[in-house]
Amino acid sequence: MSAVIVVHGGVMAKPEELDQAFLDGVKAAACDGFEVLKRGGSPLDAVEAAVRAMEDNSVFNAGHGAVLNAEGEVEMDALIMDGKTLSSGAVCSVTDIANPVSLARAVMEKTDHVILTSRGATQFAESIGITTVPTGSLVTECERKKWKKHKSYATVLNEEYNTQWAHDTVGAVAVDSVGNVACATSTGGIRNKMAGRVGDAPIIGCGGYADNISGAVACTGHGESILKVTLARRILLHVEQGKSVAESSQLALQYMADRVHGAGGCVVVSPSGQWAATITTKRMVWAAVDHDGLWYGLDPNERFNEQLTL
Ligand code: GLY
Questions:
Q1: For ligand 1, atom 4, which residue shows the shortest CA distance?
Q2: Are the C-beta atoms of residues 273 and 1 closer than 8 Å to each other?
Q3: Whole-prediction pTM value?
Q4: Marked catalytic residue, from 169, 185, 187, 280
């Protein structure tokens, strides 16, 4: 079996002038992650590399480019999970870390805990030599303008989220040639969220999950809805019952739509190398690399393929 990586750059509701930048960004992230697998790196290394690439790319709502909360500040969440051991690490509400996914990995590997939040996460980062960045340096001019414009909306979590634009979490899932899986997520959350609000992205079983028995999932979409239905775990439950990763994703996303009126998307990979990128929102930017090259898309049912020299 050949290794596979699938990444997403978040869901969105309508075409944007930045569509090409989103597509270029996810394609580059998927290729970065696949390079790691090709060189013999683990799926954990691959998903971390892919998510770091999107955190460093200011078109995405993660790391540099994260959206602002109601107080005009960045607060980011991230998760990483190893399907071999079920070990995971996460950070919530971090303000001054350029690559929250790497801090999440350090929580997993260097502490006795699973989740660290805000000040404690920053203190831990400093204690292990992860450099913090000045407050505000992760904020783009474009986000500052959008924040000012959208501040007038009172109901950001429903009307605007569903009908205007939203590209929230970035995420990645990977499987190596012997069936080890991993997932990672990273996000600035939802613009104008309350200070201290934590979404689905850093919560295992909700924003992501990885288990060598069934597969790895990274979700995107309305965090409160994803939390209510434990979306990532729900998808893998269907896989455990024998359904394909595509059908499992569709069933769980539809359940979230029917049960709590929530929209979202996900990327999933199975230990045997099956993969899917599925949405109930209008759009989600995603890319994958498998033995047939680079795949990518943005609109529903879109699947473009480019050959790579693998
Ligand atoms: N899905 C990311 C969030 O709601 O924070």
A1: 223
A2: yes
A3: 0.95
A4: 169
